[in-house]
Design goal:
alpha/beta, Aldehyde Dehydrogenase, Chain A, domain 2, 2 domains, seven-stranded mixed beta sheet, 19% strand, binds nicotinamide-adenine-dinucleotide
C-alpha cells in the first residue's frame, strides 16, 4: 500500500485552525521506537499558548462552517474519514508499530476499530433525537440535543487510534469542535488522523491536535475556560487532577481510568473456549490495556488444569520487535519497564511462584523495552500484585472455592469486587442462571459471559465504576455524553 501523501512522518507539527505549525515557543518533543530505543521523530511540543489558540480555533469553527453543518452532513464527512482510515490501515499499523511498539496485527485492528467507530457514529448521528413531553395544558414542550461546544480530549499512548475513535469520533458526530492532546510517548497516528480528516474535508478548526506534555498542554486544556467538556483516558492519579482542573470552570468530565479486571473461571467452564481469552486478554499490547484481564480467578476443581494450560501458552508466546508482528512487543518506555520489573521483583521477594514465563529471544535489540510475559500462581487476592494495576504482561491466578455452589459464587464475587477498580469482568460458566447472577453482582462497567471483550464491541457502552472512572463512551451513550440537552417549553394558549 502506498504511504500517505504527505506521509505521517512528515506530519510533525501541531494542527490548529487548519494550519500545521510549530509550537508557539518552537519547542519539540522526541518520540522513541520502543522496539530498539532509537529516536523516531521530533514533533512539536505544544504548550498553554498553543492550547489556547486551538480552543479559539475550535470556537471559530463552531461559529462558522463546522457549526453550520446539519447532522447528516457531519455523518457523511465522518463516513468519508472512516474510508480514508480504512484505505490507510496498513500504513497506520506500521506507524503505530514504530511509535507504540504494537504488533502489526494489533495496529491494523486498532485502525479498523477507528474506522468502525467513525462509521457507527456517522450512521447514528441523525438518529439521536429529542423528545416531546406531555405537559401542562397550553404548553408544548420538547428537548433538543445540541453540541456542548469545544471538547477537550486527553488520550494515552496505549491505544491512540481506538481512543480517538471512540471519543473524538463521537464528539465530532454531535457537532462539537475538538482539541485533541495525544500522549507525549506516542503521537504519530493522532497526527496522521489529522491529515486524513483534512483529506476527508473536515472544515478547519473542527479538529485541532496539540501534542505535548501532560502537565503543560494537558493541564492547560483541562483548565481552559473555553472547553465545555473534557474526555480523559489515563491513570487514576492524573484523572483526579483533570477533574479538579475542569471543576474550576464547572465543565463535565468523562474519566476512563485504569483497572484490575478479573476473568472468573468456574468448574463447569468450557476451558477450550476460555483458554485463548485468559491469556490473550492479559498479554495483548504487552499488558498495557486498561481492560487487561490481569487477574484470573479460578475455582479449585479446574485450577491446576487452567494454570497448566495457561503456562503452556505463555511458553509459546513470541516476543519481538513490533514490525516482526510478534505475539508480544516491547513496553512503551524505559520508565514503564522499570515499573513492571519492580513488580516482578516484588513477586520474587514475596516468594510468589512463577508458573510460566515467555522466553525473551537472544536476538532482541538490547535497547528495546523488553520484559518477559509472566504468569504468577497462586497469588493471594490481597497481595499487591493482585490489587494494583501493573500495566505490563503479568497475570496473577487466584484460587477460590466453596462448600456449596452459592458459597463459591460469593467467594468469587468477593475476590472480583475486592479492588479499588471496576472496569471490566469476564465469567466463564455453562450455568446460565449463575452467569446472570454474576453479571448483576459484579461491580464494573462491562461484564462478558463466556467471552472477553466482545471483539472490541464499539457499539457497547464502555466505562468504569469506582476508581476506574465515570461516564460512558462507545455506542449511543457516547453521543448522549457529547451533547447538551436543552428543554424548550412553549406557551401558546
Ligand atoms: P497518564 O495518566 O500518565 O497520561 C494520560 C494522558 O494524560 C496523557 O496524554 C498525558 O500527557 C496526560 N496528562 C498527564 N498529566 C496531565 C495533567 N496534569 N493534566 C492533564 N493531562 C495530563 O496515563 P498513561 O500512563 O499514559 O496511561 C496508562 C493509564 O491509562 C493506565 O492507568 C490505564 O489503565 C489507563 N487507560 C484507561 C483506559 C480506559 O478506557 N479506561 C484506556 C487506556 C488507558
Amino acid at each position: 500500500m502506498a504511504a500517505m501523501n504527505p506521509t505521517a512522518f512528515d506530519t510533525t507539527e501541531l494542527l490548529v485552525g487548519g494550519q500545521w505549525r510549530a509550537a508557539a515557543d518552537a519547542r519539540t518533543l522526541v518520540l522513541q521506537n520502543p522496539s530498539d530505543g532509537s529516536e523516531l521523530a521530533r514533533i512539536a511540543r505544544g504548550g498553554a499558548t498553543d492550547i489556547d489558540a486551538a480552543v479559539q480555533a475550535a470556537q471559530v469553527a463552531l461559529d462558522g462552517a463546522w457549526g453550520a453543518l446539519a447532522a447528516p452532513e457531519r455523518g457523511r464527512m465522518l463516513a468519508a474519514l472512516a474510508q480514508r482510515v480504512r484505505d490507510e490501515a496498513d500504513e497506520l499499523a506500521r506507524i503505530e508499530a514504530l511509535d507504540v511498539g504494537k504488533p502489526l496485527r494489533q495496529g491494523r485492528a486498532d485502525a479498523l476499530a477507528l474506522a468502525r467507530y467513525l462509521e457507527f457514529y456517522a450512521g447514528a448521528v441523525d438518529k439521536v433525537h429529542g423528545q416531546t413531553i406531555p405537559f401542562a395544558g397550553g404548553y408544548t414542550a420538547f428537548t433538543l440535543r445540541e453540541p456542548l461546544g469545544v471538547t477537550g480530549h486527553i488520550v494515552p499512548w496505549n491505544y491512540p487510534m481506538q481512543i480517538i475513535g471512540r471519543s473524538v469520533g463521537a464528539a465530532l458526530a454531535m457537532g462539537n469542535a475538538c482539541v485533541l492532546k495525544p500522549a507525549e510517548q506516542a503521537c504519530l497516528t493522532a497526527l496522521a488522523f489529522g491529515r486524513l480528516a483534512e483529506q476527508a474535508g473536515l472544515p478547519a478548526g473542527a479538529l485541532n491536535i496539540v501534542p505535548g506534555l501532560g502537565d503543560e498542554a494537558g493541564a492547560a486544556l483541562a483548565v481552559h475556560r473555553g472547553v465545555a467538556h473534557v474526555s480523559f483516558t489515563g491513570s487514576v492519579e492524573v484523572g483526579r487532577r483533570v477533574q479538579t482542573a475542569a471543576a474550576q470552570h464547572v465543565a463535565p468530565v468523562t474519566l476512563e481510568l485504569g483497572g484490575k479486571s478479573p476473568q472468573i473461571v468456574f468448574d463447569d467452564a468450557d476451558l477450550d473456549a476460555a483458554l485463548p481469552f485468559l491469556v490473550s486478554a492479559g498479554v495483548q499490547n504487552c499488558g498495557q490495556t486498561c481492560s487487561a484481564a490481569s487477574r484470573i480467578v479460578v475455582q479449585r476443581g479446574v485450577y491446576d488444569e487452567v494454570v497448566r494450560r495457561m503456562a503452556e501458552r505463555y511458553r509459546a508466546l513470541r516476543v519481538g520487535p513490533a514490525l516482526d508482528d510478534p505475539d508480544v512487543g516491547p513496553l512503551i518506555s524505559a520508565r514503564q519497564r522499570e515499573v513492571v520489573l519492580g513488580y516482578l521483583g516484588l513477586a520474587r521477594d514475596s516468594g510468589l511462584a512463577i508458573a510460566a514465563q515467555a522466553p525473551l529471544p537472544t536476538h532482541l535489540p538490547p535497547q528495546g523495552y523488553w520484559v518477559p510475559p509472566t504468569l504468577l500462581a497462586p497469588v493471594d487476592p490481597g497481595h499487591r500484585l493482585a490489587q494494583e494495576e501493573i500495566f505490563g504482561p503479568v497475570q496473577v491466578v487466584i484460587a477460590f472455592d466453596g462448600a456449596t455452589a452459592a458459597e463459591a459464587e460469593s467467594r468469587a464475587l468477593a475476590i472480583a469486587n475486592g479492588t479499588r477498580y471496576g472496569l471490566v469482568a469476564g465469567v466463564w460458566t455453562r450455568d446460565g442462571s449463575r452467569a446472570l447472577r454474576m453479571a448483576r453482582r459484579l461491580q464494573c462497567g462491562q461484564v462478558f459471559i463466556n467471552n472477553y471483550g466482545a471483539a472490541g464491541g464499539i457499539e457497547l457502552p464502555f466505562g468504569g465504576v469506582k476508581d476506574s472512572g465515570h461516564g460512558r463512551e462507545k455506542g449511543f451513550e457516547a453521543l448522549y455524553g457529547f451533547s447538551a440537552l436543552k428543554t424548550v417549553a412553549i406557551r401558546h394558549d
